[in-house]
């Protein structure tokens, strides 16, 4: 094919080749799908999306006669993709095609796009996709689209531009593993980005007649075993406690994916629809088909609310509702059931957690990743809420979470940095609530509990509160030494005053193995005399590290 010709027949051949390639690589792409929902269906969604696009451009599925020009064919291709889009990646892919169609129409030449037009069309598609997504994330297919557009900028011929775009997409895809922590934890590249790469490789092959050879992308065994690198420790394990941080991109197992086509809605109504969906759901994507119609995608717990909101905005059709929890269990083979696993240091604290309904992993000082993974497996539950209680390294939590999925379990670490926070968290656990509600309530209870630690210095050191000597009592708040005293009884009263200076109704003391009755009596008397409105609870934790753990709620 001559470089300067990109006619309607070439568009149709590209569409057919893409469908064939996506069908062949569907399982490979599905296996990489961990974000925003690990439901292993990205390859399937992209394949169905492009199948609908190919049927439209060929004149099938009610499309009528095949388009006579490249610009018209690209418009049919994009409209078919919007109409038949499935999932986040399918909707985003439709916008790449829409960008190419708009550029071809703006060019106005019967010969279709040249090299510069391809770059400009991909750039348009990248902008459309980012504008459509409620919370764009780097390390996803959006990053790969940007790289493809930039990679072919300046190329004059379409064939050279297509090759350059595919090559840049391939390089960018390899970098996604390091750009998004959830991908690195799983040892995968972005599944949607791979779907885009397959389509771009098909374009280069259609134009040049030469097949592009790429390696098969699989999950990294090293990553699953915890050797993927130090960057894995950047994963924010407190996200489960913060609905604002997780609201824009992830979805829970109790949510639905709702998709429908929206007609007869003006821009004001669409903007209002977007705001309403973003307020009640996540992963919101709304895109246009170039003729006034829109495709709407959202994850939320109330599927009916998404449908009602669409009806208020305009006329809806082709409504698809998928329960994400059922789909995740079907795709990943998660076991049934839910359990809470607490990592506990101290023989006295073990029965406290057990009485509240938790399974316990007893440790002496800290827990190894292998011990935690074994304990997760022993629960035999599909969802395991882990209370690390400050005894598990964050990188080990990430690795265990990734490894547990291979044995059909999902680990949900809660932000508990001490046993007193863990006790506050397990106190609100309700196994009859949906897991997303239960996890949030437990994380909220942990976050609402301020904690302090009374320890004994084992060496001379410089602290925020001055120099300490071996044997001094240290009061630690938020990881910093705030109290240094020769006598433990003085240190604990000072520490209690600091903790209660900003308010509090309940104080919990978890007594360590090294504490004596005199110390506990001093703490109890101080609270009764100086803070009489505060309720005090004392439990024998018998932990080896802290002389006392203090929780304030």
TrEMBL record:
InterPro entries: DegV_domain_contain, DhaL_dom, DhaL_dom_sf, FakA-like_C, FakA-like_M, YloV-like. Residues 9-205 form the DhaL domain. Pfam families: Dak2, FakA-like_C, FakA-like_M. This is DAK2 domain-containing protein. It comes from Tomitella cavernea.
């Amino acid at each position: 094919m001559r470089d300067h010709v990109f006619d309607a027949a070439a568009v149709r051949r590209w569409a057919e080749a893409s469908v064939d390639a996506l069908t062949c690589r569907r399982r490979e792409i599905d296996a990489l799908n961990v974000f925003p929902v690990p439901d292993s269906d990205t390859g399937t969604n992209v394949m169905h999306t492009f199948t609908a696009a190919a049927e439209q451009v060929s004149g099938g599925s009610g499309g009528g006669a095949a388009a006579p020009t490249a610009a018209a064919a690209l418009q049919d291709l994009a409209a078919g993709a919007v109409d038949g889009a499935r999932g986040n990646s399918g909707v985003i892919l439709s916008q790449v095609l829409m960008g190419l169609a708009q550029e071809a129409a703006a060019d106005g030449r019967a010969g279709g796009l040249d090299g510069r037009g391809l770059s400009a069309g991909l750039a348009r598609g990248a902008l459309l996709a980012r504008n459509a997504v409620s919370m764009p994330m780097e390390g996803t297919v959006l990053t790969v689209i940007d790289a493809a557009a930039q990679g072919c900028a300046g190329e004059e011929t379409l064939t050279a531009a297509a090759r350059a775009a595919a090559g840049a997409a391939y390089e960018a895809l390899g970098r996604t593993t390091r750009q998004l922590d959830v991908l690195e934890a799983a040892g995968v590249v972005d599944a949607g980005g791979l779907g885009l790469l397959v389509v771009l490789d098909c374009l280069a092959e259609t134009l040049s007649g030469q097949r592009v050879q790429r390696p098969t992308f699989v999950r990294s065994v090293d990553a699953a075993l915890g050797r993927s690198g130090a960057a894995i420790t950047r994963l924010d394990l407190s996200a489960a406690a913060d609905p604002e941080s997780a609201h824009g991109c992830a979805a829970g197992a109790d949510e639905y994916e709702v998709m429908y086509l929206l007609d007869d809605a003006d821009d004001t109504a669409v903007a209002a629809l977007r705001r309403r969906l973003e307020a009640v759901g996540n992963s919101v994507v709304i895109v246009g088909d170039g003729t006034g119609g829109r495709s709407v995608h959202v994850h939320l717990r109330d599927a009916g609310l998404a449908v009602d909101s669409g009806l208020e905005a305009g006329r809806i059709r082709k409504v698809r509702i998928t329960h994400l929890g059922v789909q995740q269990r079907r795709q990943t083979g998660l076991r049934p059931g839910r359990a809470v696993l607490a990592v506990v240091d101290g023989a006295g604290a073990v029965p406290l957690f057990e009485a509240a309904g938790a399974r316990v992993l007893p440790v002496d000082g800290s827990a190894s990743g292998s011990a935690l993974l074994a304990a997760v497996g022993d629960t035999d539950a599909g969802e395991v809420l882990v209370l690390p209680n400050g005894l598990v390294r964050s990188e080990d939590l990430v690795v265990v979470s990734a490894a547990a999925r291979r044995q059909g379990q999902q680990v949900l670490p809660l932000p508990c940095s001490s046993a007193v926070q863990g006790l506050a968290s397990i106190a609100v656990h309700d196994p009859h609530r949906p897991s997303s509600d239960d996890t949030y309530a437990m994380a909220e209870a942990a976050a609402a509990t301020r904690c302090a630690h009374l320890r004994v210095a084992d060496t001379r050191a410089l602290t925020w509160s001055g120099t300490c000597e071996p044997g001094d009592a240290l009061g630690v708040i938020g990881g910093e030494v705030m109290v240094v005293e020769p006598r433990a009884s003085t240190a604990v009263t000072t520490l209690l005053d600091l903790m209660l200076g900003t308010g509090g109704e309940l104080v919990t003391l978890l007594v360590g193995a090294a504490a004596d009755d005199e110390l506990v009596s001093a703490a109890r008397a101080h609270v009764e005399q100086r803070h009489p409105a505060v309720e005090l609870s004392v439990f024998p934790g018998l932990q080896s590290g802290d002389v006392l753990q203090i929780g304030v709620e």
